[in-house]
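so im writing up the methods section and need the Cell division protein FtsL record in one place, dumping it here so i stop losing it
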Amino acid sequence: MARVLMGILLLANVITAIGVVHARHQHRQLFAQLTRLEGARDELNIDFGRLQLEQATWSESNRIDQVARQRLGMKFPDTADIVVIRP
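--- predicted struct ---
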């Protein structure tokens, strides 16, 4: 009877040890994945900040006016060219 009990306790101890090893291995894998994902998140945040800055630069009214004048040849109409239509 004592041998059976010792065998059962030994088997339970081995199974528990294997479970602990498996849990620690899984924890290490998940932690490594978390670290990679946090790095990717940080890179995306940096890119997002750069894109916001670029968008702000491109959408400035002075920049739009400059492009309209230089590339498209646009200009404000002279007063004589403005026609007001009333209903």
